[in-house]
Each structure stands twice: as C-alpha cells, then as structure tokens.
Amino acid sequence: MFKGLTSFSYAGREVLPLVEGGKGVSASNHQSSGAWAAAGGIGTVSAVNADSYDPEGKIVPQVYGQLTRRERHEQLIRYGIAGGVEQVRRAHEIAGGRGAINVNVLWEMGGAQPILHGILEQTRGLVAGVTCGAGMPYKLSEIVASYGVHYLPIISSGRAFRALWKRAYSKHAEWLGAVVYEDPWLAGGHNGLSNAEDPLKPQDPYPRVRDLRAVMREVGIDDAVPIVMAGGVWRLDEWEHWIDDPDLGAIWFQFGTRPLLTQESPIPEEWKRRLLTLEEGDVLLHKFSPTGFYSSAVRTPFLRSLEARSARQVPFTTAATEEHAFELDVGVRNKRNHWVTRADLLRAREWAGQGYTEALKTPDDTLVFVAPPERDGIRKDQSDCMGCLSHCSFSSWADNEKNSTGRLADPRSFCIQKTLQDIAHGGPVDDNLMFAGHAAFRFKKDPFYSNGFVPTVKQLMERIAVGA
Predict the structure, then answer these.
(1) How, if at all, do strands 100-106 and 313-315 pair?
(2) What's the rounded Cα separation, in Å, for the pair 200 and 202?
(3) How far apart, in Å, are the Cα atoms of 306 and each of 274, 286, 415?
(4) Residue 452 φ/ψ region, left for φ over 0, alpha for ψ in the -120 to 50 degree band, beta for the rest
(5) Both ends of the chain: CA-CA distance in Å?
(6) What is the DSSP letter of 159?
(7) Where are the domains of the chain?
(8) Which class is domain 8-277+442-465?
(9) Would residue 7 be called left, alpha or beta, if left means φ above 0 and alpha means ψ between -120 and 50 degrees?
(10) What is the pTM assigned to this prediction?
(11) Helix 69-95 crosses helix 30-38 at what angle (to 10 degrees)?
C-alpha cells in the first residue's frame, strides 16, 4: 500500500509535493494551474506566449501586422507581458489562497527577460516561484530574487546545475526554491540532452538525480531544498522508493502530461481525444525544433512530414570533387554549381519525378527537396517571423544587435510559434506539433480513463496522492 505524501512548506505556504508542469503556448493556463493550486499543489502558469483577453472575455488573437521583425518582436513582448499577468491574476483568484502559483518561462524564448520582469513587476505577492529551462538561464536567479520570488531552474544533469551555481546562483542561494530534474528521455516538449548523451539510449533517472543531489550537497545546499522529478511520472507508487530516500533528500514530483487530460485543461477537445488513442512509441524524440534542442512530440502527420522532408536530402559541393562528380540537374536553377554523387543524383531525379521539384539549401551544405506549395509555405513562414525565440534556426532570427544568427535559414525546421498557437486554439491536430511526454500512451491503458473519462484536476490529484 502506498505510504502517502507529506506536505512541505514552500514560499510560506503548506503544499503537497506535486507540481503541475508548465506547458507553453496556452497548453496550461489559469484554469489548470489555479485548479491545481486549489487542490493543494503547485500550479504552474506558462508565460510562453500566454493568452490575454478582451473586455468580453474572448482570447485576444496574437496578430503581427508590423513591417519589420524587430517591430513584431516588440509586439510579441507586449503580448507576453499582458498575457502572463492576466494568467497569474486569474490563477491566483481560482486558487483562493490554497497551494501556490508558479510561473514557467522558456529561457530561449524571444524577450524572455523583459517578459519575466514585466510579469513579476505587475503580480507582486501572487507568484511563489519561477521555473525556467531550455538553455542555461544564468540571469534567472538575479531577476527573480529582485522581486522576492523563488527560482526553480530546470536542468537535466548535475553538471549543468554546477555550472549555473558557480556562475550565478550561489549569489542568490536563499531564493533557490527547488531544482527541477527534467529527464531528457522521458519528458515532453524541449529536453536537455547534451552532445555526450545518446537520444536512443535512455539512462535510468535515479543515479542521475542522486548525482544531482551530490552536487547540491557539495556546494552547501541543504537536503530540505527539493529536487523535483519531472518526466515520465505517472503513478507515485512506482516512485515510492524515491520518497524518504536519504541519498536523494527532499523529492517532489512534476506532472506535465496527465494534467493535459482534465476538465480544466485548456487544450482543445480533439487534442484530448487523441491522447486517449496513443500507443507506446507514438511520441518521438526529435531534433526538428528551431531552438536546436531535442524535443518530444506525438508523431502526427505534421511531424512525419518533417521526417520525410529531411529524408529527401542530399549533400552537395560547389565544385566537382572525386566523390561529388555529377552535376545536379533537377531542383536548382543554376545547374553548374551543385555537385553530388551519382547515387544522390538518381535519388534527386526520382524525388523530382514525384513532384518534389524544389531544392532548398540548408546551413549544412545539403539540399532538401520539397514540392512547390511546401516551398512557398516555408518561405512565407520565414518572412513572417516575429522573433519568438532568442535564436531561431528556421528563420535565422536572433535577439541580438544584428537580429541574425549569421547562418542560412534551415528549411528542415518549422515556425514553432505558428503551429503551437494553432493547435492550442483549435487547429487540426494532424497539421500541427502536438507535444506530449513519453508516458502519454498510458492514457489508453489506465482504467482511470476508461470509457473516455476526463477527470477534474481535483479528481486527478486525489488519485495521484494515493499513488495511483
């Protein structure tokens, strides 16, 4: 029998050690996070392109009519602050003084720092902590501590936390609320796989979390500062041996995928229905994201089209070599400057015969073959860029003085802002990126969800709290 959970003191509040994962671009909002806090946990408002509302309560469409990317980027920041503030205020009202409300920020999102400042400035006393990952957010502790708010860095290894601690976090140690270990092979969304780790060879999270605690002890952090296990957590009775383990210290658990299928979850009904049909292996760990990070998403036709696009790819040189001795005669206008192998020439001709007649250059000296409508869509999305990421491989936008990465835009990627906004607001699931953790297949197998049952957040948390 599951031994149960003990409440903890966090930001002056008594909370259950259950954290809602903050899913960006309107996949978690005030409804889900407020309800999670009201049930005694830590609800998490996503501050990644959060929705704001007009006087009638309707969502304000995030439209960018400005001529330049810089102007569109500044509009994105305004949307981000307005939406984040509105979501926090509404979540706090729903929570009714129970639990706690955190804010989640993607460090690599465009305008992360001014958006975070703007939200915290206008929600003083309402936010307990800020979780932040996707990158190395060195300035997180400085920004958040200046508002008297806890920070909870999201990392995937003890090595990453040590680097953050040495460079910045040690200066604001008293505001470290917890350290979120997000497993790079199990979590949904963007994951922190390093170049030294194999995406096809998952590692057991226990020794990695134990090593993280060892690093935290080494730098003088008390065991009472929790580590939050994030990614792959479904039933707590499967993690019972982690609770009260002296090698791990205080452990909390984060749930990102299961709260997607609740009555308060803001995702559209089609998305919820699709979750109930997933099989094991339907979630793919891939590297198509324009952030450059690996990420996990459901293998929808949209994701399969990206896989197919990258498969239609050949390397080339601009002069003949011993290996690249054949001039490419399809897909490119200037047929004298693209040299390929004989095998690749035959493949390119075959693709052209199938209708993939346009060859687009990538930053890696390869050519990707697409159909004319696909080419036109790629180019339009690139030209419509509003700088939603600090560095975007798809559009070459960078949030720097030149607003450029200095690299060729990569047609193998996609506009992540466009697809996440669309799916979150009712666009077709098959035509968009659908983030989910690798345990999402368990919706179909878990008897709790039999006959299409969709619980309230309160019902879900009551079930989680007893280990099921």
Answers:
(1) unpaired
(2) 6
(3) 20, 10, 12
(4) left
(5) 10
(6) H
(7) 8-277+442-465, 301-431
(8) alpha beta
(9) beta
(10) 0.93
(11) 30
